[in-house]
Amino acid sequence: MDERLQEFLLMKQKFSGSFNEEITVAASGNLTFHWLNNTSHSLYAISSPHVNLNLISTDALEDVGIIVDNRRKALVRLDSDEVLAPVTKIGKYRCVTLSFGKLPKHKSPVHVLSQKFSLTLIHRLFGHINVRDIKKSIESKSITTIRINDVDWSGIDKFQCKDCLTGKLTKHKHIVGSRLNIKSPMSYIHTDLFGPVSGVDITSPKYFISFTDENTRFRWVFPLKKKDADHILPIFQQLVNYIKTQFKVRVLTFHMDRGSEYTSTMVRDYFKDKGIIPIYTTVGDSSSNGIAERANLTFLNDCRTLLSSSNLPASLWFYAVDFATLRRNAFINSSTNSSARAKAGLAGLDARTILPFGQEVMIHDYTQTSKLKSRGITGFALTPSKESHGYLIFVPALRKVIDTSNYVIVVHDSTSLSESSTHSVFDNLLESYHVTDADTDLQKAAVEDVPVSDISPTVTSVIPAGSDNPADFSQPSEHIIDVDIWHA
């Protein structure tokens, strides 16, 4: 499981050559070299269909005490300056003949990266979104960096997720009527309040308030500890200003129920001052505000599913709701046949900028003052930060959620927060990432040339939720992978 997960995470990263060309990874394994001084080293290898030579990074050599001496045109031992093999320059590469390579006597495994993503893996990666909506979103490029042919769609009509059945089972649907067709984005907003949430600690929010645009179905959620007018009025003010600044649109109408928090004099006076028309549901007909109520039901179902599948504590419930909102805005909405981000004029969500909810990571322990103590501390990814280019990470040892970009994905079995569970959030997801017999290019290449290149992965960090800037932001230089070998 560890190796398959590592291979999946490799696919989420971008590898670049010395001239910044992007290189696709197809397979990985190990090559053994027998040097002039009769010593041997096994070096990690990666294969690419787009490069006709095998490539090894200098970091891989330095890890075993070998450097490239350009003056002597040789590989030499770092400690003794002893020549291990001659180096020949071919184009932009420095190459070592594979006559120094030892062919294995038996077939050995490599990890095949070119297998298609399974439906289960994609479904879990994107936080239990309906697989049909995922397919439509990839086809429409609402989700980028994943192509439609990268996924095995067989069985989509019969696909079933037990976590979704557990978290999202509902009564029969309410029959809804028609509404006016609002053509102007961000001008007609539905809102509803959910809560209180029981069984969480005093520091956690008890409620959340959601807003849904009638035209685009774009959604926002905000946490609340109390639901009175004093707490919701600042949120109305914040949202109205945000829409005016970011979308150059004035909110004309808010549609809501007749809760006292909405009908208070304070809130009514604000609407009157801004020229906003409040529309309230009639008595006993809360279903007339069905858009907002269904949004809250969707978020609640997503929240239960994410917490259940990740084994994270209930006190983190609003982070699950926030993560669900980010995803729902990115994927195709069946009522509009488009994604909310696309209708709002925002770029598609880059799949490389998110992690599965609850994914184990290792972060830098900024509280550690001793130079002898370890610097890494275990955390669990929640959702992209809205205030930085970092990620919100739950750190059990610190009992807090921190905003950081200084993290590395953990590729071994996840440390579960539940005593009854010892599985990572990726368990049972990686059927398509398996070990195969390596009668492959890596072994066939043992009679060819192996270039040594300064190739290292560029780990991509996250874009803050709601950002309309699709650019990637580089993460600190704590590389997960240091070694690259390629062969076409």
Explain what the structure shows.
There is one protein chain. The chain is of the alpha+beta class and 488 residues long. The protein has 12 helices and 29 strands. The strands form 8 sheets. Strands 3, 4, 11, 12 and 27 form a 5-stranded antiparallel beta sheet that branches. A hairpin with a 4-residue loop joins strand 6 (66-69) and strand 7. The two termini are 27 Å apart.
Features:
alpha+beta, RNA-DNA hybrid ribonuclease activity, elongated, disordered C terminus, SH3 type barrels, DNA integration, 12 helices, 29 strands, 3 domains, magnesium, 488 residues, 24% helix, disordered N terminus, RNA-binding, Nucleotidyltransferase, domain 5
The CATH homology group name of the largest domain? Ribonuclease H-like superfamily/Ribonuclease H
Distance between the amino and carboxyl termini: 27 Å
Number of alpha- plus pi-helical segments: 12
Instruction: Summarize the amount of helix as a percent range.
Output: 10-25%
Looking at the overall shape, the CATH architecture of the largest domain is 2-Layer Sandwich
Quick one: CATH class of the largest domain?
Answer: Alpha Beta
Coarse morphology:
elongated
How much beta, percentage-wise? 25-35%
Kindly state the mean pLDDT as a whole number?
75
- Taking pLDDT < 50 over at least 5 consecutive residues as the criterion, the unreliable ranges are 1-6, 413-488
* Structure class: alpha+beta
Could you provide a short overview of the structure?
The protein has 488 residues and is an alpha+beta fold. The protein is 24% helix and 25% strand.
